[in-house]
Amino acid sequence: VSYYVGTLGTHTEIKKVAEEKVTLPCHHQLGLPEKDTLDIEWLLTDHEGNQKVVITYSSRHVYNNLTEEQKGRVAFASNFLAGDASLQIEPLKPSDEGRYTCKVKNSGRYVWSYVILKVLVRPSKPKCELEGELTEGSDLTLQCESSSGTEPIVYSWQRVQEKGGEDERLPPKSKIDYNHPGRVLLQNLTMSSSGLYQCTAGNEAGKESCVVRVTVRYVQSVGMIAGAVTGMVAGALLIFLLVWLLIRRKDKKRYEEEERPNEIREDAEAPKARLVKPGSSSSGSRSSRSGSSSTRSTANSGSRSQRTPCAEAARRPGLAAPACGPLGPADRASEPKKAPHATLTKAENTPSTVPSQSRAFQTV
């Protein structure tokens, strides 16, 4: 019956920053009596429970290039045959994190040691951003966040002194969003809120920071620009309206001038008749009368030529009515020739002594 005497070492926890060097301790006293039967083995169990061999010593040989990921980065830190089988890893990577087990066996005796290694990753350089309007009276949100790093990451904001006497604290009306520690709300901005603001992201491994500048603009300047633009637009519209009204008025006036001669007013007074005395005459009436008398003379000459003695006798009551009847050719031939109009007028005004039979054949 073989008896095995074992020693269970204490658990050791080590935290180390990535890219640095770490030494995992493992000590024993089993190699001095018989060195040929000494076996040393380091095992790594990750967070998912998978186990793999990191480095071994057996049959007087060291095997330390067991995986490509750890090749050239792992080795025994000291004289493992003399009792120090500590493991050294350099440079440290996040994948090296886990539970390490050191097993030392020799001639039926063994020693186990456990080391929990936690690899810390520094926060990546955060990115600073602004959300909101940079005008007086508005609210502004400062935000920063690191894309990588070991949790928890703590964020803090502060002002950067550019001149002597400036306060490093945030403005009085500032609120921190505890659900998102990297966000800070600056309320009711003023001109004194302008300046540099620094965000720092930190954890157990270290810190990183970023800087952003806040420049608050005057509200009046924005209002003046908007008012100037509005005034220019309104002025252009007013000029356009005036030009349009002038053109419209000119066209309307031209239309009225063209339509006035053809316009008939129903409420206009009828022209008044002008009475002319029998003895009065003017150059205008004379000219008109001369024209009309010539027309009448022509018409009267035509009508008188068609009068018969019967018609003339009927028109003058003092004359005896001759025997009237249709004129034959002989009668027409014996009809006396007509005298001129002036002679007839004169004869009409002179008392006639012609007998009634001959008077019937006189033409007036």
UniProtKB/TrEMBL annotation:
<keyword id="KW-1015">Disulfide bond</keyword>
<feature type="transmembrane region" description="Helical">
    <location>
        <begin position="222"/>
        <end position="247"/>
    </location>
</feature>
<protein>
    <recommendedName>
        <fullName>CXADR-like membrane protein</fullName>
    </recommendedName>
</protein>
<keyword id="KW-0677">Repeat</keyword>
<keyword id="KW-0393">Immunoglobulin domain</keyword>
<feature type="compositionally biased region" description="Low complexity">
    <location>
        <begin position="279"/>
        <end position="330"/>
    </location>
</feature>
<dbReference type="InterPro" id="IPR003598">
    <property type="entry name" value="Ig_sub2"/>
</dbReference>
<keyword id="KW-0965">Cell junction</keyword>
<dbReference type="InterPro" id="IPR007110">
    <property type="entry name" value="Ig-like_dom"/>
</dbReference>
<feature type="domain" description="Ig-like">
    <location>
        <begin position="126"/>
        <end position="215"/>
    </location>
</feature>
<dbReference type="Pfam" id="PF13895">
    <property type="entry name" value="Ig_2"/>
</dbReference>
<keyword id="KW-0472">Membrane</keyword>
<feature type="compositionally biased region" description="Polar residues">
    <location>
        <begin position="346"/>
        <end position="364"/>
    </location>
</feature>
<dbReference type="GO" id="GO:0005886">
    <property type="term" value="C:plasma membrane"/>
</dbReference>
<feature type="domain" description="Ig-like">
    <location>
        <begin position="20"/>
        <end position="107"/>
    </location>
</feature>
<keyword id="KW-0325">Glycoprotein</keyword>
<dbReference type="GO" id="GO:0005881">
    <property type="term" value="C:cytoplasmic microtubule"/>
</dbReference>
<dbReference type="InterPro" id="IPR013783">
    <property type="entry name" value="Ig-like_fold"/>
</dbReference>
<feature type="region of interest" description="Disordered">
    <location>
        <begin position="254"/>
        <end position="364"/>
    </location>
</feature>
<dbReference type="InterPro" id="IPR036179">
    <property type="entry name" value="Ig-like_dom_sf"/>
</dbReference>
<dbReference type="InterPro" id="IPR013106">
    <property type="entry name" value="Ig_V-set"/>
</dbReference>
<keyword id="KW-0732">Signal</keyword>
<keyword id="KW-0812">Transmembrane</keyword>
<dbReference type="Pfam" id="PF07686">
    <property type="entry name" value="V-set"/>
</dbReference>
<feature type="compositionally biased region" description="Basic and acidic residues">
    <location>
        <begin position="254"/>
        <end position="272"/>
    </location>
</feature>
<dbReference type="InterPro" id="IPR003599">
    <property type="entry name" value="Ig_sub"/>
</dbReference>
<keyword id="KW-1133">Transmembrane helix</keyword>
<dbReference type="GO" id="GO:0009986">
    <property type="term" value="C:cell surface"/>
</dbReference>
<comment type="function">
    <text>May be involved in the cell-cell adhesion. May play a role in adipocyte differentiation and development of obesity. Is required for normal small intestine development.</text>
</comment>
<keyword id="KW-1003">Cell membrane</keyword>
<dbReference type="GO" id="GO:0005923">
    <property type="term" value="C:bicellular tight junction"/>
</dbReference>
<keyword id="KW-0796">Tight junction</keyword>
<dbReference type="InterPro" id="IPR042454">
    <property type="entry name" value="CLMP"/>
</dbReference>
